[in-house]
Every structure is written in structure tokens, then in C-alpha cells.
Amino acid sequence: MAQKEWLEVRVDELKNVVKKVFISLNVPEEHAEITADVLIEADKRGIDSHGVGRLKRYVDGIKTGMMIPGVEGIIVKETANTLTIDGQGGLGQVVAYKAMKKVIEKAEKNNVCFAAIRNSNHYGIAGYYAMMALERDMIGISLTNSTPLMVPTFGRNVFLGTNPISIAFPIEKGWPVVLDMATSTVPQGKLEVYRRMGKKIPLCWATDEFGNPCDDPGRVLDNMAARRGGGLLPLGGADEETGGHKGYGLSFVVDVLSGVLSGGIFGIHLYEEKGKPSGVGHFLGAMRIDAFIEPDVFKRNLSRFVEEIKAAEKRENCTRIYVPGEKEYEKAAEQKEKVKLYYKVVEEINAIASELGVDATLNPL
Amino acid sequence: MAQKEWLEVRVDELKNVVKKVFISLNVPEEHAEITADVLIEADKRGIDSHGVGRLKRYVDGIKTGMMIPGVEGIIVKETANTLTIDGQGGLGQVVAYKAMKKVIEKAEKNNVCFAAIRNSNHYGIAGYYAMMALERDMIGISLTNSTPLMVPTFGRNVFLGTNPISIAFPIEKGWPVVLDMATSTVPQGKLEVYRRMGKKIPLCWATDEFGNPCDDPGRVLDNMAARRGGGLLPLGGADEETGGHKGYGLSFVVDVLSGVLSGGIFGIHLYEEKGKPSGVGHFLGAMRIDAFIEPDVFKRNLSRFVEEIKAAEKRENCTRIYVPGEKEYEKAAEQKEKVKLYYKVVEEINAIASELGVDATLNPL
Known about the structure:
By secondary structure, the first copy, chain A, is an alpha+beta fold. Chain A has a single domain (6-185, 233-296, 326-355), classed as 2-Layer Sandwich (Ribosomal Protein S8, Chain: A, domain 1), CATH 3.30.1370. Helices cover 38% and strands 15% of the residues of chain A. The first copy, chain A, has eleven helices and nine strands. The first copy, chain A, has helices at 11-24, 29-44, 55-64, 92-110, 126-131, 188-197, 217-225, 244-260, 295-311, 326-334, 343-355; strands at 6-10, 74-78, 82-86, 112-120, 138-144, 165-169, 177-181, 280-288, 338-342. In chain A, the strands form two sheets. Chain A has a seven-stranded mixed β-sheet with strand order 2-3-4-8-5-6-7, sandwiched between helices. Chain A is globular and about 55 Å long. The two termini of chain A are 16 Å apart. Chains A and B meet through strand 4, strand 6, strand 7, helix 8 and helix 9 of A and strand 4, strand 6, strand 7, helix 8 and helix 9 of B.
């Protein structure tokens, strides 16, 4: 019988292994719990690119000194409704989680709060932190800069990250509305999938070493690895005619809010020095809905908005209109207890655990 | 000699005529000044689609009762850092200008402020209000919902507006960074231009009556006028593979902040009843930079960011990388005193003025 490509594992078992891996690297238990939870939430929501498949990068990050275990960021400036935080080079998940907790607490008292965070690291899915605001009837906002992988419009080389934007809204019926999108057309991982399948990629995804649109994912990935030029394209593709300058503009402003406003680094300077904190920055926010309008009215009207748009007539051969976050919530509901992982991810996690002498393994069902 | 397509007019003369047109329609002089200024600023910045070429729509708006002259919006809820405003069906420019003034005043005292505004009308270029924050060393934010012209991903009919996003950042050297983008790939006006030129449009711009991508601008525009289905595509095009769900998601959340959070209307309900206020909503914000970081440090680092990205290597056959707002500021610097208008726009303005018995005409140079 052929090896199954996707294996099912129990969420509690997965969390146990991942937590123990972090703890074995001197990450305090509470921080290990937070980091594992953010990673596994991505897998549950079907965002494999940001899930436990990245565990090795975190393990290497801690080993090389890029990510410093045990710290959680310190407030360097504070007003009634703003925070500036130095992440101390800690795990991005821990820094962002703790920051978002404070943002929500301050918004609880003062209606709105925003935090600009510097000197952090990769924080996983942007949506996790935005969604933390939901249970308090707040709107949550989460942005981050990231590894330079995207070319600016008319540029030849990578300069900006895929800098995601997330915003979450509570609702009366059904799933909350959660936008969580990279500002590139696709993440790098999508090119890897197409290469594995031997498929060409759409011309709005990436550029070759000259900066021109390219349909060969292998050529793009090899060029990017060797820094020969080219990279991911912003949402909208290579040209102004197709709106590429808009995706580029969004990525740019996410970096201004995350990197410049926090007093951190930006653009091409992220991940500049090996073995040092990456310098990733975040921008988080929360707004109480009742500062603007009765939350019940907001949530009822948002439900109506969602119902109306979903009930609208469909494009030929299409059966369903989705709203932001819907697919991810459905996937997470399916994967509450058990989550599907690519078999190589399971192998890698077990190899990491064994190498670190961790007393736990993943046993696919 | 052939008629020149673009005519140059003096900005002060243009402002005088436009103001007088509004005043003749019972718009108070101060409100006429604001509205004329927002419209002409669009023309100066090269955003013809939102400039005085729209004057007839405002004139008709006032005549039919969609836009109510003399009102400027009232605060219905207020906290130290939030506002909810009912625009009273007034001119969108007046309502948004007055609201942004209050937002800036409150942010001056309390670091940040956001306003959700309902029951307004078309407010012109989103960037105008975001840029109002710049001289106070604040970050300005401006969003609005708008006429349903965009199809949701997998939908057949228009449901959302081209709902723009604008954010403005002050800078040390050069032009401020101002993102001001519709969340559709292009505005409807672009299809009109291509139809006039007899050119096909890219497949990521619009859909036919079945909801499928269509390269014939005339067919799309005729379908839209007759409400036979189809419409503008979100940034990213028709499919998830090209990221269309992201542009759609952005448009959706802009409407939630502008329409739902303000207690107003949203989606397909804008412009539902002829002769009644359109129900357009806005979301405006301002954040003091010094609440997060020393403004000089912010502005110096933003200048460096801009210089670095502009100095980066260019794509083959490209000579320049732009940053958000740069093209518009350059155009506005060229058109400080004199602005180029399409000859039909000049004819139309003079016809409107003459019909209203306004004692002023545009005299192209």
C-alpha cells in the first residue's frame, strides 16, 4: 500500500510534542504553550504554511540565537491608548500574544488601543491575535512585516515581506468575519507545491531574475535561494495595469506601521544578520464596538451582511460565495480534535523530538 | 486645427466656478469651498475620475434630494477617542472634512481617534482626509464604502463598492507616503476609457453577465447599466488562484468599518432609493506619532525606507520604482496653478454654470 501523503494526528498529542520540544530548548512552559497553540491553530484552520511544518525554523531560530527563549517583550512607551514594545528578540508568538493581551486590556478601559512592536520574530498567523479581541466584542487588528520575499512594482529584487493584514469582527450568527491575507498574490510555499506537481504558475505570482513575470516555479525558487533576483509579486501582479502597485502599496504601509512606527527595522534589513534577532515588527490593535454603536446592532447587521452576500447570485459554475475567514473556521471545526499533517511534517517533528531527547512522539491515527 | 483633447485652466478660476455652482444650489459658501477644494485636489493629483468631471453628479445629487445642502453631520456618540456621526445626508466632502477635523482635534488631546460616519454621500478622493493629519505629525486613515460596482469572488452581480483605503504618513524629506487605492483592480472609468479607444481590457478587470472574466469593456458597461449581471473585479481578479478573494475581502472589511460600525447601511443597499441620501458611510482615523515614537525618528526612518526602495535595482526595461503617493504629489506639484481637464469636462462645467445662471465661466488657456 502506498504511503498516505496526509496523516491524521490528535491535537492534544501534537500540542504535547510541540510544547515539549520548546521546553527542551529552555522555553518556559507558559511560552511553549502559547507558541504551540498559535502554530497548531494554523494547521487546524488549514493554513499549513504557518503551522507546525515550521517547527524546525523555530528550533533553529532558538539554537542560533535568532529567537531568545524566556523573554516576552518590554513596554518602552505607553499612553492611555498606545503602546510601544521592544520584543527583546523573543519568540514572535509570545511577544505578540502578550502585547495583544495588553492592547485588549487597555482598550477595555479606554475604548481603543494600538501597539507598535519592534525587535520581535516571526509570529505565525496574523489572524490569531486579531481573533483574540472577538470574545470581548472588540474589533481586532494584526499586521506584521516579514522576511523580504516580495519585489516592489518595477523592482528586480526582493525588498518587502509578504506582510499580512488581519482584521476580525464579532458576529451574531455563524463564524466571525476574519480577514487574514498576505499582501503578495501567494506565499512562497505555493510555488514549492507547484514545483512538486510539475505545474506552471500564473504570471501574477512571481518574477524571474530580470524582474519579469515567470511561470516556472523552480526557476523562481532557485533564483530566490541564490539571490539572483526576482521574487514573489504583490497582490495584483507585476504591472500597474493589473493593480500590482496596490498590493505593493499595502505591503509597504504594513511595514511602515510595523517597522518604522515601532522604532524598529524595515524593508531589506529584516533577517540581515545570521544568528541575531530578525528584527520583525508587528502592529496590533483593538477597538471596542460599543464605543461606536450598540454591539448587538453591529453583530446583527454583520450577520445580515454576510447572509445577503452569501445568498447573492453565483457566477456560472460556482455554487458558493464565501466571506473572509469562513473557509478557515469550517476547516477548524472539522479539525477540532484531530488535524491532518503532511507526512513529511510528521516525520520531521518526530526527528526533532528525538534529536532533542524529548519524551514524546507523534503517532498518526 | 483639431480640437485639443486636454485643456488647461487656471485653478483659481476653476475653483471660483465650481464654488459658485454649489452656492447657486443653496450650499453655504464654506461648504462650497470645501467641496470644490476636494474635487480640484483630485484633478491636481491626476485622479480625474474623482475630480470636477463629477460635478454633474453632485449637481444632480443636490437637485434630486440625494445630497442635502447646508448640513454637515451631527455627533450621535462620543468618547475620548471615538466618534459616531450621522452625516444627515449632506455632501460627503463636507461631512468627512468636518469629521476629520474633529478626529484630529481629539487625537491631539488623546493620542488616537477614530470616527465611523453613516448617512453621508460620495466624499471624493479618500486620500484628502487622510492627508489632513500630516501637518500635525499624525498618521491619517480614511476609508469609505461606495456604489455597488464590484462582484464578490464567485458572485455574478455587483454587491460591494470599489471601497478605497487611504493611509498617510508624514516624512522628513520628499513627499509624504500616501496610499490611496480602490479595492477593485480598476475604477469603472478605466473601462470607459478603453471602450473609447476600442481596446480590450485585461481579464482581471471585470466580468460578463455570467460572472466570467471578460475582455470587452463595452459589453461589461452595457451589462452594468442594464443590471444584467457582471461588474468590476476585486484587486487580484476573478479567482482565488490569482488572489481575487483578497481584494474582495478588503472591500468587505472597508464596508464593515464604514457601513456596519457606523450603524449605517452596507453592501447592496447603498444608493437603493432614488432621490434619497445614498447612505454612504466613512471610517476616519488619526494617530499621533509621538504617542509611539519621536516623530523626528519616524520621519527620518521613513525617508530612509523610501530612499532605499527607490534606489533598489530595477526590473528589466524599467527606470523607476515609485512609493505610494509619489506620482500624485508630482502631478500636483506640476498642476499647482493650472490644471489639465478633458475638453468635455470643461464644456460640461460651463453648461452647468450657464444653466444655473452662475456668473462665471471657465476659459481654457
